Amino acid sequence: QKEVEQDPGPLSVPEGAIVSLNCTYSNSAFQYFMWYRQYSRKGPELLMYTYSSGNKEDGRFTAQVDKSSKYISLFIRDSQPSDSATYLCAMNQMNRDDKIIFGKGTRLHILP
Amino acid sequence: DTGVSQNPRHKITKRGQNVTFRCDPISEHNRLYWYRQTLGQGPEFLTYFQNEAQLEKSRLLSDRFSAERPKGSFSTLEIQRTEQGDSAMYLCASSFAPLEVTEAFFGQGTRLTVV
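ok -> structure tokens follow
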């Protein structure tokens, strides 16, 4: 079992819809959770990060972490065609000597 | 400082040749990561540095790969005797980790094509 699982999609939704992106993980030591957006042929861009369980909101984006289920989500409200990209979840253990582990990424298409 | 800078952006090389990539992190960042990404996959961890110390190297990384960060600032990643399977996007990221804050910022990557 991979440490971080993410459905690669593609996921196609109409403009204005609410998008739900998810990841599951196996390492209960993960405490720091990040979402990156990556446009084609570009480097990943940090969208949001959360520590431990709970919700965090930033504009149209909401990140949720459920550590008991080892499940994290990113919600995008009022989706726009410019949101079309690959969304990568990432996480680590938040100690000094630990690397960041990524999911495969979910390709998202917002249809105008 | 506009972010993490990687050079070159693209590299085409013949199989068997050596290549070297450079990464300049955000200036105050003490942690630097190298990742490799192939089409349809997420970034795969290669190695990372805390200042000039290389803290971890992926078991997936063959001996043909070596990375340095000699003065704790920029880093280089060298691939010796390149193979077609090395074709990928090589991503560098940096972060500032005084305690446990570890969100990483990425460069635009170096796309390597081995022919």
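Chain A has no helices and eleven strands.
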